[in-house]
Design goal:
Blueprint lengths: L4 H16 L9 E4 L3 E5 L3 E6 L16 E2 L13 E8 L29 H11 L5 E6 L2 H4 L6 E4 L3 E9 L2 E2 L8 E9 L4 E9 L4 E9 L4 E2 L6 E6 L8 E4 L15 E2 L9 E8 L6 E9 L5 E8 L5 E13 L4 E11 L2 H11 L4 E5 L2 E5 L1
Antiparallel strand pairs: 1-2, 2-3, 3-4, 5-6, 5-12, 6-9, 7-8, 8-10, 10-11, 11-21, 12-20, 13-20, 14-15, 14-17, 16-19, 17-18, 18-21, 19-20, 22-23
């Protein structure tokens, strides 16, 4: 059969139009996107990923948008998997006088300064950061509050939907180079009450001990334990982990006083799980656990759960990598974050996915990588 030139042109244009249309959502998932954010609704979860003008932070899952459809409970803090600076061990004393323009965004040492004179600032710094391990930022800004608008990419597959966000750090400490790239890939699998996530750094700098700081899974807001009944840290107090009643968080304490983990002072655990048991503040009834599983324990440099001073918040900081890096090299960590009925379920999911530090996704599928 022979076609006229005009018929062929019409066929090509029509075909191109079909392929140019965005992929349709499957029955189990709905993706709603506008200029401000991307909303993911699966058969089990809801979550919002901001592009600009966030409710709290620019990175990770937006504040209290993470919903467990099975129980109706949401996360208790200011968002999940929130990202800070790119950092290293050490002090900024040699160049601190050159940091005035960016000091408020964290390029100074993140821990307490011995030259601080204001008693209130000293008290705040000691409570927030402790004094046992000095650190400094290599590149900024602190992404969660200062990152400019982003354009995340939505990736759809047959049984998952994923969102990929990238951003380059904009400035660096004296003698360092700006431009390291952060990549966050979030995969929402069909039928699961959790998402799978990777944070990756492509470094523009050399460092003897570089790490990325984040909130894993996220902070906990409460008033004398009204929103959660207990916390679980799998890597403390032996192979069964440590269950901590909410009453341990009624008074403020710094990260290096209790419930802290450092790779250089602790044995690397089999599993690295941090979770809190949600409860209804009106009825006191327990709901699900919200847990963050870091799938390769050896990538955790330091982690803590500490009660901040005067603001009813438990900070769940985790720092990944903390090893030597050369410019042009990369490092990453892979996590599972979501709702679980009990601790045993967390460990079963961990065993199915353990040992991975990276994540990839395309139209053909998603996969965890070493």
């Amino acid at each position: 059969m022979r076609f006229s030139q005009s018929t062929l042109l019409l066929f090509v244009a029509t075909t191109a139009s079909i392929f140019a249309q965005p992929a349709k959502d499957a029955d189990w998932v709905k993706v709603t996107e506008d200029d401000r954010a991307i909303k993911i609704e699966t058969d089990k979860l809801e979550a919002v990923i901001p592009k600009k003008n966030p409710k709290q932070w620019m990175t990770g899952i937006e504040k209290q948008s993470f919903l467990d459809k099975t129980t109706g409970f949401r996360e208790l803090g200011d968002g999940l998997m929130v990202i800070d600076w790119l950092m290293e061990a050490g002090s900024d004393e040699a160049y601190r006088d050159k940091l005035h323009a960016t000091e408020e965004r964290g390029l100074g040492s993140y821990l307490w300064h011995t030259n601080e004179k204001d008693p209130a600032r000293i008290a705040h710094a000691l409570n927030a950061h402790g004094r046992s391990h000095r650190k400094r930022a290599i590149e900024g800004p602190q992404l969660c509050p200062w990152m400019k608008p982003v354009k995340p990419k939505v990736i759809r597959g047959r049984d998952f939907v994923a969102v990929k966000t990238t951003y380059k750090y904009e400035y660096a400490a004296p003698g360092r180079k700006a431009g390291s790239q952060w990549t966050q890939l979030i995969v929402f699998p069909k039928g699961e009450r959790f998402f799978v996530l990777m944070d990756k750094i492509d470094s523009a700098n050399d460092s003897d001990e570089m790490f990325l700081r984040n909130d894993t899974p996220g902070c906990v807001r409460h008033d004398q334990g009204d929103t959660f009944s207990e916390m679980y840290l799998s890597y403390l107090s032996g192979p069964k982990g440590l269950r901590i009643p909410s009453s341990e968080f009624f008074a403020p304490f710094p990260p290096d006083l209790k419930f802290g983990y450092r790779r250089d002072t602790h044995k690397t655990p089999e599993h690295f799980i941090r979770a809190y048991h949600i409860r209804d503040p009106k009825t006191g009834k327990d709901g699900p656990w919200l847990a963050g599983l870091t799938l390769e324990p050896s990538v955790v440099y330091e982690a803590w759960a500490s009660q901040r001073l005067n603001n009813n918040i438990i900070v769940m900081i985790e720092e990944i990598h903390g090893k030597k890096v050369k410019a042009g090299e990369s490092f990453s960590a892979a996590h599972i974050v979501g709702f679980f009925d009990n601790i045993e379920e967390m460990h079963k999911v961990y065993d199915r996915h353990k040992g991975h530090t990276a994540l990839a996704a395309d139209e053909k599928g998603w996969r965890l990588l070493k």
